[in-house]
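Hey,
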Amino acid sequence: MRSNLLRISLLFLLFVQLSWAADKNLSDTHEFLLKNGLKLIVREDHRAPTVAHMVWYRAGSMDETNGRTGVAHVLEHMMFKGTDKVKAGEFSRLVAAVGGRENAFTSRDYTAYFQQVEKSKLEEVIKLEADRMSNLNFDDAEFLKEIQVVMEERRLRTEDNPSSLLNESLMATAFMSSPYRHPVVGWMNDLQNMSASDARDWYRSWYKPNNATVVIAGDVNAQQVLASVEKYYGAVATKDLPVRKPQIEPPQRGAKQVQVKAPADSAQLTMAWKAPRLEPGKLDEPDPYALELLTAVLDGYDNARLNRSLVKQEKVVNDVGVGYDMISRGPALFVISTTLAKGKTVDQVQASIRKAIDEIKQKGILESELKRIKVRILSEQIYKRDSIFGQAMEIGGTEMAGFSWRDIDYILERMQSITPEQVQAVAKKYLVDDHLTIAVLDPQARKSGAEGGKP
């Protein structure tokens, strides 16, 4: 009885804290739309004299065409190669000079750039970022140097990494039509044949204010931020964007399997099922929330079901992970990834995974088990909002998937209403062989230094 009362009290406390945070976020968050189509979202948080400035372009690898995969990521690199006013390499130096940090990242859904600076330096980074939104200017020589950097990045992170190779083959096998089948870094042949004009065309097509969202979080005044953003970003001309084709993934009609042979110490098994994602305008659909909670049931804490059964009890794997992207622009997969223990076979591991899933399908999950997971999700959300940068990331990622920052708290609230029966139902409905793609890493002996060294 005492432990139940403690759990209920903790849950109530977290709900109170979240409700306070939600009300505060709504009152301290401001959204503006500039005349040129740029969206500005300002989150005021005055706990520390710092600010995160981010610009998100709704253009990622899913917007690429065959033969030009990787160009979104390549352009991310080229954005640091200068404008008419700022020489190549100067952007990062100027941000560092005002005590800031900066970087960029590309995903399937978007490309984003950020700086985190002391609040009095905000206008300086706004000016720099707005300048390269419209005035990027790099020569062919800079491109030729940087494309070599990207190709080396692919070699190191993918071609020399068996886990990355396996994931790349999994995605290319699971999807037939969706551009999610292509790696964000691009296929090597496409990188080898990419030209500076490909990167410039990508920039001219997508890097426009009407395809961008600026997110600024920190110790700021929203109206003052708006004035600075209008001064610099507002001067950038709008432009028609390319037509985006739906590229809807056709229904899968049976299980798929792919094997990858690569130098590695251990075999790996990944099982991925097609699953629905949360869609804008359909926030009350229960299945995506139930799938998100199912990932936590299987792998959300140290003694979650797969870790307990596969790692601790049966000792068939060294590690196991479960992933599912509920919010994205493209189709979703529910993924279970494992690294096999020495002497264990893929068939043994697959049988153990299926046994754990079948137990949920047949017996369901406990109410107490789900409550524990919901408390963990709430607490993680509250801790995340202690970070100014984390708040900006959450807003930007949500907006890029087609949702509003206003939906964030409702999504979390909706997840709290999911029942054990709904979690059991999605396991039965989606974790079936007709939706399944299996990827197996067959480990090969590593070459000796004499045999495998680069010429």
